[in-house]
Amino acid sequence: MFILKRVGCVGSIMVPQCTSLFVGNFSACHCLSSPKRHSPYSSVDSERYSSLVKAVMSSKVSSQTPENLQEEDEHIYGPVVKAQKPSSGPEVRVPKNLHPFLNCEETVETEEAESGPPARILLNRGKYRSPVPSVTRILQQTLSREQIFYLERWKRKMIAQLGEEGFKEYSQNLFRQGKLFHSAVEDSIISDATSMDKESSEKAEYQPDVQGYMESVSHVLADVSAVRATESTVQHAELNYLGIVDCVARYRGVLCLIDWKTSEKPKPFLSNTFDNPIQVAAYAGALNSDGNYKYQVENGLIVVAYKDGSPAHAHQLSSELMLKYWTTWLLRLENFTEQSTSQASSSFVEKRGDL
């Protein structure tokens, strides 16, 4: 047993304290007799090692520059291949034939020439109908993969809800309501253009299928004036396509090509109208090149009407937007032409194979 003495301090008086420690199984001889560990460096030839270090430290090393290092790297690893800078966005396509949107040679008529009945040039749908493709057909056959995917998805969903026959009947009803709506709008516009009493035309009653649609567009029709054309055919002879224009008139004083649309869902933004702006630009470009029309149209208007009578959304297309969608239309037209040429070539090869 060991007794350890410790001195404590209380105030200015030092007080000795004793502490007893009991240590068992302690052997000083065992600690002193333990063998010394063997160092792994004891077998190293220190003289030879020191001479090696001196030789390395005393040798002269040539100075290296970035150019020398690059030469050595190229010799060992080959020349450096610089990566291309990432593009800021997808490649912008440009039409091969950037046909002008406006016909600069056409003389723009004065406002006095806007008086008179609206033009209505009918499309020949007889036996010897023209092989010129329509705007609607071209847009349908040049849909993107994404557009086709969502269209087919919607179609499958509707067939699952209504069945094959139910979906067919649903589509026919939509087409019939659209035709009735266009006819009602045309009648309203023509009656307003030929009648001095607008109040009587505003109170006109329409068929139940279109009553809600006409209530929906009533506030838009109030701003439409100087109607130039309704349900009239336009054709672009150089670019080889045609279409039927819903209306050409002034909307809030600006001459516009107007397209009337119906929808079951609200479309408050222009982006909700899908390919409709391209369609309007295509119609306007054809009208501007068609000799039957002695004026030019630079602006557009898409009016989306709703069956429940809620106010229609009117999307105006400025001249800048029309030029943008005109360029998109030219690209779609090129795609359609390439598809038609490819199909014609395949058909010709098949016919030759049958001979």
* Largest sheet properties: 5 strands, mixed
**How many whole angstroms does the radius of gyration measure?**
44 Å
Calculate the terminal CA-CA distance, rounded to whole Å.
Answer: 123 Å
The secondary-structure class comes to alpha+beta
In DSSP terms (H or I, runs of 4 or more residues), the helix count works out at: 10
Q: Strand order across the biggest sheet?
A: 3-4-5-6-7
DSSP E strands, number: 7
Describe the structure.
The chain is α+β, with helices and mostly antiparallel strands and 355 residues long. It is built from 10 helices and 7 strands. Helix 9 links the parallel strand 5 (254-263) and strand 6. The radius of gyration is 44 Å and the shape is elongated. The model is unreliable at 1-32 (pLDDT under 50).
Question: How would you summarize this macromolecular structure in one to three sentences?
Answer:
This protein is α+β, with helices and mostly antiparallel strands. The chain is 43% helix and 18% strand.
